[in-house]
Amino acid sequence: AARALVRLAGAEVASPDEMLLAVRAITYLCDAMPRAADAVVRHGLLPVLCSRLLAIEYLDVAEQ
């Protein structure tokens, strides 16, 4: 599940809504299961998240 969510969050062809939902799902997953944070980081979440946070067009993701 973590790999698929990271892939959706980082997909260039994903709609902004899909990306936002993936980031929200990752947030909820890590809140409910703190050990899941390790899995999403191992699957490359940090570079994806940093690139999304630096892009002004993804303000909803930054707020999440």
From TrEMBL:
Keyword Membrane: no
GO biological processes: proteasome-mediated ubiquitin-dependent protein catabolic process; protein polyubiquitination
Record keywords, A-Z: Transferase
Residue span(s) of domain E3 ubiquitin-protein ligase TRIP12-like TPR repeats: 3-64
Membrane-spanning segments: none
Domain of life, per lineage: Eukaryota
PANTHER family documented for this protein: E3 UBIQUITIN-PROTEIN LIGASE TRIP12, E3 UBIQUITIN-PROTEIN LIGASE UPL4
GO molecular function: ubiquitin protein ligase activity
Protein name: E3 ubiquitin-protein ligase TRIP12-like TPR repeats domain-containing protein
Transport listed as a keyword: no
Signal peptide interval: none
